[in-house]
Amino acid sequence: MVISNKPLRFIIATLVACLPLFGFANATQDSLKVPTETIAVVQESAPKAEDEKSEIKEKIKEVINHHVLDGHEFSLFSDEETGAHYGFPLPIILWDNGVQFFSSSKFNHGESVAESNGNFYKLHHEKIYKTDAAGTLTEEHGHPTNAKPIDLSITKGVLTIMVVALLMFLLFSSLAKSYAKNRGISSGFGRLFEPIVLYIRDEIAIPNIGEKHYKKYMSYLLTIFFFVWFLNIFGLTPLGINVTGNIAITFGLAVITFFITNLTANKNYWGHIFWMPGVPTPMKIILAPIELLGVFIKPFALMIRLYANIFAGHIVLMSLIGLIFIFKSWLGSSLSFLLSFAISTIEILVALLQAYIFTMLSALYFGSAVEEHHHEEAH
Amino acid sequence: MEKLVSDFSFGLFIWQTIIFVGLIFLLKKFAWKPILDAVNEREEGIKNALLSAENAKKEMQNLQADNQRILHEARTERDAMLKDAREIKEKMVSDAKNEAQNQGLKMIEQAKAAIESEKNAAMAELKLQVSSLSLEIAEKLLKDELSNKEAQTKLVEKMLGDAKLN
Question: Matching InterPro entries, A to Z (chain B) (predicted)?
Answer without folding.
Answer: ATP_synth_B-like_membr_sf, ATP_synth_b/b'su_bac/chlpt, ATP_synth_F0_bsu_bac, ATP_synthase_B_chain
